[in-house]
Please model this.
Amino acid sequence: PELSTSATSLRELLGRPVPRVPLLLRILREVDRIYSKLREEPGGVLSEWKKLSSTLGRRVRVITLNGVHEGLAVDVDDNGGLVVEAEGRRATFYAGDVVHLR
Model:
């Protein structure tokens, strides 16, 4: 799809201008918090990622250079790969486009 039909801005969403410097500082603080947590407790970040994922537990289509794969997103492995189960077999994907199916 054309980006101009789906793109938005914080100003448009909030109905007011958003100061860039405070926004950038907040983003950087959050990145620093997650990075620190990752260094101290790598499993904690993965656990939080899984908890917040809107993909796990859903049927998905994964489009890769090697083809299209469909199945149930069941896990994220320790390296960040999406684990998809189909027909009793599991495959892990580290790159590709993931589409949620209904």
Observations:
- The first strand starts at residue 59 and ends at 64.
